[in-house]
Amino acid sequence: MQNSTLFSSYDFLKDTWDEMFSNNDALRKQYEIISNYLQYTSPEELSKKEELSKQLFMHQGVTFTVYNDEKGIEKIFPFDILPRIITSKEWEKIENGIKQRITALNLFIKDIYNEQFIFKDKVVPANLIYDCPYFLREMKGVTPPFDIYVHITGVDLIRNNDGEFYVLEDNLRTPSGVSYMLENREISKRIFPGILPKCNVLSVSSYPDILYKKLRQCSTQDNPNVVLLTPGIYNSAYYEHTTLARLMGIELVEGSDLVVKDHVVYMKTTFGLKRVDVIYRRVDDDFLDPMEFNSKSVLGVAGIMSAYRKGNVTIVNAPGTGIADDKAVYTFVPDMIRYYLNEEPILKNIETYQLGKPEDFAYVKKNINKMVIKKTDGSGGYGMLMGHEASNEEIDDYFKVVNKNPAAYIAQPILKLSTAPCYIDGKLSPRCVDLRPFALYGPDGIDICPGGLTRVALKKGSLVVNSSQGGGSKDTWVIK
Question: How far is CA 461 from the centre of its chain?
Answer without folding.
Answer: 22
